[in-house]
Each structure stands twice: as structure tokens, then as C-alpha cells.
Here is the input.
Amino acid sequence: MFTIDKPLPAITEDGAPYWEYCRQGELRMQRCGECGHLRWPPSVLCPRCLAESGDWVRLSGCGKVYSFIVVHRPQHPAFFEDAPYNTVIVELEEGVRMHGNVVECPNEDLTIGMPVEVVFDRVNDEVTLPRFRPRK
Ligand SMILES: [Zn+2]
Here is the structure.
């Protein structure tokens, strides 16, 4: 059957360390060296204080579903076979909100506030996507 490759994140210079940590099974974000703000998405300058310095800190990978939708009619043909699938915003314990999907959970069981933890889905040699699963 004819299949279309799914679009994948572009790995930019700013985000390259993030993706490298994902390949290693670690969720990390940049922490500003001046004000401590967690930068998401990765950037050269801190959006709060414009400092360049920072380091990549490991996050707990735990959070809660802040919001979600269930997609029944994907906009991109590469996702037609996956529908219906969920897209979530997870608020991590560290306060950052990031997009993803909840796996290992039927869509009808998703709830706002559901505790989740990160899992890593290796797509190819370059891209490993963080996703989330219900946390017990
Ligand atoms: Zn800062």
C-alpha cells in the first residue's frame, strides 16, 4: 500500500542537544544561567532576561495533562491511518508545557489532570520523540 512519511521535527542547531538527550532517553531543557528560567523551545537567548548562558538540566519527565484533543480528521495524509489519535499539552512538574501524545491509554480514558510520565519513541537514527503514558 502507498504510504506517506510523517513529517518530523527539524533538528536545528539550538535544539540539537535536546534531540540528542531524547535519543539517550532523557528529557532535558535549557536552564538560563542568569535567571534560571527553563527555555522551551530551545533558544540562543533567554526570552525573560536575554542572557545567552545556560545549561541543559534533566527534568523529571512527570507532569499532568493540561489539555487534549482527539483528532478524527487529520490535516496531513500521513496521519490518516492513525486517526483517531490524541494530541495533548502536558504541564511538567517543572512548570513547562509541551505538546505530545499519550500512549498506552485509550483516547476515551484521557482526562484533564491525568498524571503522566515521559516515554521515548525512537523514530529513526536522528529523531526520538518524547511521548507520555499514564503514571501510576
Ligand atoms: Zn534568563
Observations:
- Strands lie at 28-32, 38-39, 54-58, 62-71, 85-92, 97-100, 115-122, 128-134.
